[in-house]
## 1
Amino acid sequence: MTTPSESSAPSRRLLITGATGGIGLLLAERLNEQGPGYEIIQHGRTPRNEEQGRVLRPAQITDLDEMLALMDGVDTVVHLAGASAPQAEWDDVLDANIVGTRSVLEAARQAGVRRVVYASSNHAFGMWDRNEQWPVLPTTLPRPDSLYGVSKVFGEALGSYYHDEFGLEFIALRIGWYAQDPLEADDELLHAMWLSPDDCVQVFRCAIEADRSFGAYYAISENPNRRWDITNTMVELGYRPQDSWTRFTGRSEDVVEGGAPVRDTWPSGS
């Protein structure tokens, strides 16, 4: 299998929805650092800096026609837009994550987009974590811990339908806990699911370029205490995580006999 760094593919036109969020801004700024370059269209509402303000393309995520207007000539959509808080209420996830995701996939289908890379979440499987029932494997059934998690299960199911029914390539990344610094939270479970900025850029590039048309993959760094299997992410997408929270901080893993209590609330970004 050809890895992204080995690919000599021509530049692709990418649409990043939600490019003003933490991961969206990171990808907009850094996806072109290695490998083939991308022509990036940034979608969002409030620009994060002056440079982004000059290129940002606003569109209502729930409006099919507005989203379709962004997809002319687009090869891949990286779909990050939506309600991102585990505490989000039903109306928020209904509009942004359910109706919005359907609008993005339908617009992609109508525009002839090759692939959608979908930002799923650990919260689609969060009840396994809350009940300390590990490991979580690629074949483990969804078990959402919130309405937000429910909306991510829906997104994966809708992507499966669009792939099988219409041939739209669909790669779901089940993002762990993205943070610049793993010590932003003093929580062993979050350390275990930490995704570093460098690994985040790499795993999204792999999802864009890999020779796979469909799949769901955990996106987590090489943390020594993780409970979520990234074997298929490595084998099928070519992901090679470089970071772990212990190497980043110089600390060692805390091993708790019988497991550690799992929190019922989650910090921002988890």
Note: The first helix runs from residue 22 to 30.
## 2
Amino acid sequence: MNLLEIFTDIKNAFGGLWQTKQRGNSLEIITPYATTNNRFVSVFLSKQGNDFVISDGGWLSNGVYEVAIGEETCFLKILYHFQNSFEIKQIVNAEGITYYYLKTANAIDIPSKLFDLTLFIQNIVSVSEIAFEDKEEKETKERFVSIANEYLKSFTDKEKLKLNQFLIPEKKDIKFNAIYNNTPSTLSLVNYVTGSSNFYFSNSISKANMLFQMADDSSEKTFIKSKVSIIDTSADGYVPDKLASYLYHLEHHTGSLLVNWSEKERLQSILN
């Protein structure tokens, strides 16, 4: 039984409001279940040896659901509770991204395990968003978004600049801090990278990585002229020695141009 045949069984089990997208050797299954911040949950199905693996694709760790997996003791206790309840396993890859997953050798078990992982993701996003908002991190992000937005508006054509914009508005799955239409047929994607601590800063880098990779897999790929990451060098979480490997990956694996906020004038030649 191949992955698409299994997906047909899933639709028969849960209804027709499910979609798929092939991602290499994995099948992204876009569920009709939304998080508390209105993001539809995706899970990823792959075959590894004799086992079927259902994972979150690293999206919780990467910040795709626009929440941070915190390090607070109370939050971790809740995380472990849900992991135990749903029997979720985890693995960390070479880039430090955590993948939450379930696996089974029996195709008949896939719909129930997929549903369990979906509920796990919903619960973790809810807890992350509601119970453990880090005031310092929130203020750091809001401050940088505000000053970066104002700077971009100071030298760009306001008709060409879109802030807090989805790459494909009707799909609402890939959002950038700014999208600049250099010409009618080319655009630049802009991510702001910041954080009040090393943890939040590296998480911000990981999120930028994922968004640029998703853009490269999208129908808009041919229109992308440049990918730009604006690095908040004034943030408390900016510690170059600890972030060097993350920034190297962002630059060399996604083709993103890294622009330090201390050298923000470079943006004028990049975007215009």
Note: The longest strand covers residues 26-34.
## 3
Amino acid sequence: MKKKSSGRWNSYFLAGLVMAGLVVLLGIVGLFWTPYSTTAMSAGEKFLPPSPAHIFGTDNFGRDIFSRVMAGLGTTVAISSLVVLFSGAAGILLGAFTGYFGGLADELVMRVTDAVNGFPSILLTLVIISILGSGRQNVILSLGIVFVPGYVRIVRAEFLRLRDADYIRRARLMGVGKMRILFVHILPNILSVFWVSVMIGFNNAILAESGMSYLGIGVQPPDASLGMMLSDAQGYLQSAPWYALAPGLTIVWLVLGFSLLGEGIRRWQG
């Protein structure tokens, strides 16, 4: 049974690694180089269908869609990575201290997280963006704030579960410091659970960033964004379906890849 579970984990994990790795690598390359300019317009090349010269075709301004997908991928991956890094780090710190020490700080943090979770995440993000203004940095900050409570709850629950474990009690009796217990003895033992949450959070960040850019409050022109490309393409679904299919299927591929990574990690734990 153990070998079967490991094999299943390898198949999910490897499939996700290949799928997500390909588009992430493409996005990283897109931050520094694209086959064509992502901003140069050409009236004579508007709405060209996919071809060897333009494998995803061109848009309503004659821009190469594949080049813009590469650049948009780089933007989406960079924003999503920073959002998960910020919210995950804050979640670990807050969840670790509240879960291990408890007390008034725990009550205060939990009530704040309850208040944040009481609002629909997209609504709260829109409120924060309306206060801070649109732009890449504000998108990262607003999504990071919205995602923190989820990580806090996961980390806190794991620290609550482990803080009275036998090996932690022995560490206390041996005089091990509290910070060492937190980050050397407990934290490594919750990372398997935390990594699954990171994969889910990355997917949520991708979809949230794409949705905000689709609504026009995320990444602003002339920067490329997959969500903004979908918004621009919605009026040409019949005349130029490749315009919407390229960014749309790219988002689906990326989210599916990270979902398979998370599923592979989860099955390995089981």
Note: The two ends are 11 Å apart (CA to CA).
## 4
Amino acid sequence: MKSSTQTILEHTSVPKHIAVIMDGNGRWAKKRFLPRVMGHKRGLDALENMVKHCAKLGVQYLTVFAFSTENWRRPEDEVSFLMGLFLQALQKQVRRLHENNMRLKVLGSRERFNRQILQGIEEAEALTANNTGLTLSIAADYGGRWDILQAANKLIAEGVSEITEDALAKHLMLGDAPEPDLFIRTGGETRISNFLLWQMAYAELYFTDTLWPDFDSKALDDAVASFQKRERRFGRTSEQLPVEQQGVKNVETTDYHGAVDAAVEIGRAHV
């Protein structure tokens, strides 16, 4: 993982790495007088569609927040359903990921998962380990503070006398992936909720009122278009940027949808 605080990251029109908090499943169901669990089921469909569209765009890494360390506080029946849905997704979707040359990784503590879920995680990761397409990372029983602490504790156990940024980064859950370029949160909330606190130091933040089950391909294109409007300065002034990156905020949104279309063609060429 190259550090955005120690180097200037490569500029790309389509983010290499997108991180997502998939928020709004329960509210989506409530608006339709359905049980909350039905929202989670529809949310799984939305994730499947997003994986497909990210691959089409040429996104290399997609990391989604499925279940936080704080989500254990939710009602027991909802937690039980989410664990079952997680296992179901591992069993049913991993073959599809594998067939499309995609890699699956699960981030977070695994201490509270039952044996069946642990086995499902291990089998899914092993099956897709050598694939070279998009990497889908699912954060489950994950927290940003937990991630930093577990990395620091590994260094302490190794007898390290001084913790450096590079050394710590290697032990983080996404140590082998680039830092997220774009962070998306659906559902209208405007916080990052203890997600990838270290890794998102210079991520571009995108918040939308769209509830996660309604977040479709067009919604993702809109998020990417917003990303393409940002000047990614990494501490520099606008004037220090290459000419082609200066003043991007003033370009019309339609130009960005054209750029997204062009990126799709580039992505197809590399599939």
Note: The first helix runs from residue 25 to 31.
